[in-house]
Design a protein that fits this description.
The structure is a single chain. The protein is an alpha+beta fold. The chain contains 2 helices and 3 strands; from the N terminus they run αβαββ. The longest helix is centred in the N-terminal third of the chain and has 17 residues. It is globular. 13% of the residues are buried.
């Protein structure tokens, strides 16, 4: 999971983005993963090489309304602000 920490330092942020996309794809079962601009800002906030070790995200599966969509659903990734990561568990929220 922490592969990007041992990556060439000029590729850490792009590798972290790919890791989050893969995590969302595996967790939610959709190939189409979209990142919230705020999430992108949070991940890149310390530059290309200063990626945070942990970032809390909310994954929501949404219906794709586009006519020519290949898939019916897509996953939307948003950041969640937390002060401490100790003791956090996965939470399922029905919307």
């Amino acid at each position: 999971a922490d592969d990007f920490l041992f990556r060439t330092f000029k590729k850490r942020a792009p590798t972290a983005i790919k890791a989050v996309r893969k995590f969302a794809e595996d967790a939610m079962g959709t190939k189409d993963v979209r990142l919230d601009p705020q999430f992108n800002k949070a991940l890149w906030s310390r530059g290309i090489k200063g990626v945070e070790h942990r970032i809390r995200v909310r994954l929501s599966r949404k219906r794709n309304d586009a006519e020519d969509a290949k898939e019916k659903l897509y996953t939307y990734v948003t950041p969640v602000a937390v002060t401490n990561f100790k003791g956090l568990q996965t939470q399922t929220i029905d919307e």
